[in-house]
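=== Structure Prediction Worksheet ===
Name of assembly: unnamed complex
Input type: mixed (protein and possibly other molecules)
Chain count: two
Listed entries:
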Amino acid sequence: MQDAKAMKLKVGLAEMLKGGVIMDVTTAEQAKIAEDAGAVAVMALERIPADIRAFGGVARMSDPTVIKAIQKVVSIPVMAKCRIGHFAEAQVLEALGVDFIDESEVLTPADEEYHVNKWEFKVPFVCGCRNLGEALRRIAEGAAMIRTKGEAGSGNIVEAVRHMRAVQSGIKRLTVLGDEELVSEAKNLGAPVEIVREVKKLGKLPVPNFSAGGVATPADASLMMQLGAETVFVGSGIFKSSDPAKRAKAIVSATTHYMDFDLIARVSEGLGDAMVGIEIDKIPAEERMAERGW
Amino acid sequence: MVAVGILALQGDFDRHARAIQALGQRSILVRAQEHLSQCDGLIIPGGESTTLIKLLKEHAMWDALSAFAATRPIYGTCAGCILVANSIVGMDQDSLKLIDIDVQRNAYGRQVDSFIDDITIQLNGKAEKMEGVFIRAPKIRRLGVTVTPLGWHGSDVILAEQDRVLVGTFHPELTDDRRVHDYFLRKIKANQTR
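=== Predicted Assembly ===
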């Protein structure tokens, strides 16, 4: 019962973020640009994913100085990332008062077997997924929001599309299965049958389903919304472009009005250079972030 | 049947739409000025007020909302309450000034300070208990003399109205309790016959 109440508050905040854009920022100045452009939340990071990729080495939770500086200048929710399975980083982030924790494959995983038991926290968690089974396992662990993994820092939308389509077709498949097939399907998905039953009943995930990894243009945002995302995370796409403020604003408008193509055409004009981006096959398999987590 | 518009630029508009449908009425997702003409009333949902202000102004809906309020009821929850207030305490943030209240944003703190607690509402002539869901909620710091309080959490007023405008700092749309939405529907119906 206590869990149900706590979950209502966690999912409640995720509901409030719907239809908006969550932006990765590394400084107070960038956070202000994001808020002024209409971001619904910011992700406070020491480095954006494209730079994490370039920098190499072990990527960890951000320095609290960075998070605190960003909390000071914006009134919108501030999120931060912890490593997969690193519950102590999550405890520190909760102590810092971040509004949402992203247990993220963008950082180097700390536990190759278990994710954080998110039920133990008051602060809500978002987790990445590549397919329905992965999404449902994270929800079983207490995630209040699911996002596609995409391929962070690539500027390439192809992986986010793959993951969103996999989740959506997995859900569609469940809705046509007979009740007697659900236990076996739960086994195939590697997820608890109670959650599988709930998804069949709802025809959607029981928590908001957002998109992340590779969004670089207003049309990318519209694409993900049309595929069923309820909100869009933009990581490197904004502050790796030539005119971040303008691009941020354009992506916000395109996310809200994702079916208004005249408007998207208008806001896409003269945005300057998007981030360069990389083809996924040019990223060595061991450097692909989406493969992290299970 | 009445048609209730739900401002659907950003926020938990979907939950409000479901609440209206559960009461057997029609909901219209409002994303552009022209959608307003079909609506008998409008709900401004929870979300981020800074984002909502930008989107409203950018797409010429800011003045349209003021014009709408002159003839039809508006119900603002959380961010919606901030949007229609007279002023925002301690911040230089624009508002529609449709009801004489001053509101403080994030008045309880951050997400870890969000809570669920019993509240008291008075919508049917007597005080009744209800579950109040407060998420990064604002507080009404001042009520003008023309504003009628309709709900309380401790000594804080969390639900109030002035003529056609109803405001709440909590989220009935996140529960299965439809009493506040039902009250708003009654406001809309009363407005149509006046």
